[in-house]
Design a protein that fits this description.
By secondary structure, the protein is α/β, with parallel strands linked by helices. The protein has 11 helices and 10 strands. Helix 2 runs parallel beside helix 3.
Length: 350
């Protein structure tokens, strides 16, 4: 994918046969012998645009508050060969991440750092809180990848591995476990570990960005590009190199993966991210839960009756999370950064 001011990269058509999706019986919501719900059986809460200095002085404070989702807006700055984190500046950083080399450095030093520092901040926080987590990390590729400039999916995978090390990550290869042909097959078998087994881990997923989607010159979007990359890694026996899960963006009825013309990438999508109001009013979300997919519901405050964007009453916000948990959300995303009693909620899903 390309930055809007760069020339578009034309994707080569892939003539691959469709992969059959095997649907084994659903597994239990609670991992056997642990007493802990599987990742697929719980609902947690996270903060939208967690990197914003207006919400938290330092990124680690979002984790202190209980947020189970950290959202980072990422730009590929090919001029400086950097992965930037900001809302609207493709050539600079504007965030609350610092350069920490230990947990002691999480609340001091210069902010406005690159993506690697943001991920490293999460790593060091988890190192100091090994019983916490898992933490979902949502990466929005604002303008998409730029494979032609050496900033494509493979390069980002390598960058993430270098920044945090694989021991702090739960990756697609971990879910596949050597025994499932696709992520869809693994999810439908409920091969997810217990949440307790994922303590100290981050789970990264990636979505297309707003600038990318608005760019008519960009015909290869992040979701397709990363899912294709992941499928190809698996076919080559190198799926361990993938550090992220691709996500389908946008709430829709039915199976939203049918939008992808290349049917061979569909079984590599098991993360779904979209508007909470649409999910609860227009979509049979039980399908996501019975398939053990990860469903992130955004803008929780807008579900009727609407709540304050930033500072609702705690009881009302908690009731909203309970409503969306009953509606099969895996993660409820909101802007309630100042409500730790809400952000720390962990509920049964469905």
């Amino acid at each position: 994918m390309r930055h809007p001011v760069r020339s578009a990269v034309t994707a080569a058509a892939l003539a691959l046969a469709s992969l059959a999706i095997v649907i084994p019986p659903a597994g239990p919501a609670t991992a056997a012998g642990t007493g802990s719900p599987r990742l697929s059986g719980a609902t947690t809460v996270g903060v939208h645009n967690t990197y914003s200095k207006g919400d938290y002085t330092y990124l680690a404070q979002a984790l202190d508050a209980g947020s189970s989702l950290i959202e980072l807006d990422v730009w590929d700055d090919v001029l400086a060969d950097r992965w930037r984190v900001s809302h609207s500046d493709p050539l600079g950083n504007d965030n609350n991440c610092v350069v920490a080399s230990s947990p002691a450095g999480l609340y001091t030093g210069d902010r406005n750092q690159n993506l690697g520092s943001c991920l490293s901040d999460i790593k060091w926080w988890l190192a100091a809180h090994p019983a916490a987590g898992p933490v979902f990390v949502k990466i929005e590729m604002k303008a998409g990848f730029d494979n032609s400039a050496g900033m494509g999916p493979a390069e980002l995978d390598s960058y993430i591995a270098a920044a945090v090390g694989t021991s702090y990550l739960y990756r697609p290869a971990d879910l596949l476990g050597g025994g499932y042909p696709t992520l869809d097959a693994a999810a439908r078998a409920d091969a997810w570990p217990a949440r307790a087994a994922l303590a100290g881990k981050m789970i990264i997923y990636v979505i297309p960005g707003t600038v990318e989607l608005a760019n008519p010159g960009d015909t290869l979007h992040t979701d397709v590009e990363y899912a294709t990359h992941l499928r190809n890694l698996s076919a080559a026996g190198e799926v361990g190199n993938a550090m992220m899960f691709p996500a389908v963006l946008g709430a829709a009825t039915g199976d939203p993966r049918t939008q992808y013309a290349d049917t061979s990438i569909r079984p590599w999508f098991i993360f779904f991210d979209g508007d909470a109001s649409t999910y609860v009013t227009s979509v049979d979300t039980s399908w996501y839960s019975t398939s053990h997919y990860i469903l992130v519901m955004t803008d929780a405050q807008n579900v009727a009756p609407a709540l304050s964007d930033t500072s609702p009453a705690v009881a009302g916000a908690q009731a909203r999370v309970e409503l969306l948990a009953a509606g099969h959300a895996s993660v409820v995303s909101c802007d309630w950064s100042g409500l730790p009693a809400v952000l720390s909620m962990v509920l049964p899903r469905g």
